[in-house]
Design brief:
A six-stranded mixed β-sheet has the order 9-8-7-10-11-12, sandwiched between helices. It has about 550 residues and is α/β, with parallel strands linked by helices. It has 20 helices and twelve strands.
């Protein structure tokens, strides 16, 4: 009987991967490549497709190393076999170019961004190698190169078949090198070894023939200037793609830590989702709302200093006592000042800070009736404005001291299940996307949605005692409210102490007069491009 270890040793010359064209000082880079290639199936597919189509293994890996490694170095042309010269020509055209340097500023040390850079370049790289593969057959050298590429493809295919046969044999003995493999599987592996050996011999003969025919330089029949231009354009395209991904994530408030918790495939799906369909339409408006809300929060004094209660030791330069300021003004005493500053031994005023009372939740009640799909002169829909405003309110809730809970009640004829963001938990990105994508359509019926919002505040008040909550209604419809319901609503407001604001959106919106009976403030927004029209709302809340 034949042991698995014996078969693995016999197959080793054909199953080991070729050395990278790009080498680095850190051998761990290759381990990171293996991990990201396993996680990111699209990246592995690119590598497999290029290898199967052109017989040039490792192109995706080399492009990834060039984008990821801290100091990538290209193998000398004399060390590269003829079949891989097209790949080296592409890498040589990229490395050191201004476009590739811009790309590396984003991708160096980040395996995911380096993988995205490879995927962004894949189509251009495939087209360049395709041109090389279909070079005119006018000379003996070109014909020899074509035969060499075909031989390399066959060599790659037989090596892949050998790996499959060897994997099947390993599975039969649970990977035990001392396990005895059944004879039929031994025969399969031996036959695959013979095929791989023959293909390797044919490839070696083709390589020798190409060398004797003077196969040419790195460009391999393709004009060097065109290779350089196309390779640099591919790097620039990849850099543009990474910048666009980062911009979309920033507009949606996606934190780096949230991305790092996702695997490569999940990050790819998220990137596509944020830049396509409804989410892409909302992205720019959401970003502008968030910038405006941040600016408004910065105008408020959240942490005003309290009263002075004494003197203590510390390093708060804003609280230095006058004697320390005098010492700082004397050049001879500055060194001593620096030492005491480093040791936190400066005399500073001891202050008693202001205690901040916890506030109740912010709840956005968002009209999702059919009319909210209308748009203004700028092409901005009522839905986009409402949801961008709601996500900016979510940011304000998280930035409060202490953080406030947030919920969104989307409604039309009936309210949807509230989307809740608890104050003591990180914001769930999936919930943000659900808020943006969900749109039930239908009519506009206010009482059930407002009752749902009040029930959330009632539950919060009973559980935590937090009052001073805020409800923001965003709609383009008129409120048809029965006097009995209005009386009940006012009783709830008095008991829970929450405020109610209303924002009507679009120049097509109904008269908001009916909302005056239940709101502290009602404002009408006709120009949906103007995010600053609601700026004072963020200062108030």
């Amino acid at each position: 009987m034949t042991r698995l270890g014996e078969l693995q040793a016999a197959a080793a010359p054909w199953t080991r991967r070729p050395a990278p064209l790009v080498h680095t000082d850190d051998q761990a880079d290759l381990a990171v490549w293996e991990q990201i290639a396993d996680e990111c199936t699209a990246l592995g597919d690119v590598d497999t497709a290029l290898t199967a189509r052109f017989g040039i293994p490792g192109v995706a890996r080399d492009l990834w190393l060039a984008a990821y490694a801290r100091s990538p170095q290209l193998l000398d042309a004399g060390e590269v076999e003829d079949a891989r010269r097209p790949a080296r020509a592409i890498l040589a055209a990229q490395l050191g170019s201004p476009e590739h340097r811009d790309l590396r500023r984003l991708s160096t040390g980040d395996p995911y961004l380096a993988a995205m850079a490879v995927l962004a370049q894949a189509a251009v790289v495939r087209a360049m190698i395709e041109k090389l593969d279909k070079a005119p057959q006018g000379t003996a050298g070109q014909r020899a190169r074509a035969k060499l590429r075909q031989a390399r493809r066959e060599e790659t295919a037989t090596a892949a078949a050998l790996r499959r046969a060897l994997d099947a044999a390993a599975d039969s003995v649970d990977g035990d090198p001392d396990g005895e493999v059944d004879q039929p599987q031994v025969v399969d592996v031996q036959r695959a070894i013979a095929d791989a050996d023959g293909a390797a011999a044919d490839a070696a003969a083709a390589a020798q023939a190409a060398q004797e025919a003077d196969a040419g330089e790195d460009s391999d029949g393709l004009d060097g200037a065109r290779v350089r231009a196309a390779a640099r354009a591919a790097a620039a395209q990849a850099e543009t793609e990474l910048v666009a991904q980062a911009a979309a994530a920033t507009r949606w408030g996606v934190e780096p830590g949230q991305l790092e918790r996702l695997d490569a495939n999940e990050r790819m799906r998220l990137a596509r989702k944020l830049r396509s369909g409804k989410l892409a339409e909302f992205a720019q408006l959401i970003g502008r709302f968030r910038q405006m809300a941040t600016a408004q929060r910065s105008r408020r004094v959240e942490h005003a200093k309290g009263e002075y209660v004494g003197v203590t030791l510390g390093d708060d330069l804003a609280s230095l006592v006058p004697d320390e300021l005098v010492a700082l003004a004397v050049p001879a005493l500055r060194a001593q000042f620096a030492i005491r500053y480093a040791d936190r031994q400066l005399m500073v005023y001891d202050q008693r800070g202001v205690e901040h009372d916890a506030q109740g939740a912010i709840i956005a009640v968002i009209d999702c009736s059919v009319s909210m799909t209308n748009d203004d002169a700028h092409g901005i829909t009522g839905e986009a404005y409402a949801k961008a405003l709601a996500l900016a309110l979510l940011d304000s809730a998280r930035a409060a001291t202490p953080p406030r809970a947030f919920a969104a009640v989307l409604f039309s004829t009936e309210p949807c299940e509230p989307i809740v963001f608890p104050a003591d938990r990180p914001v769930d990105l999936a919930d943000q996307i659900q808020l943006a994508e969900l749109f039930p359509g239908g009519g506009t019926v206010f009482p059930p949605a407002l009752d749902a919002a009040a029930e959330l505040l009632d539950a919060e008040f009973n559980a935590t005692g937090r009052g001073r909550a805020d409800i923001v209604i965003i709609t383009d419809g008129a409120a048809e409210l029965h006097p009995t319901w209005i009386a009940s609503w006012k009783q709830r407001r008095h008991r829970l102490g929450f405020r109610v604001f209303a924002v009507t959106v679009g120049d097509w919106a109904d008269d908001p007069a009916d909302l005056d009976a239940i709101c502290d403030d009602v404002r009408r927004i006709e120009d949906l491009h103007d995010t600053h029209a609601t700026a004072d709302l963020f200062r108030t809340i």
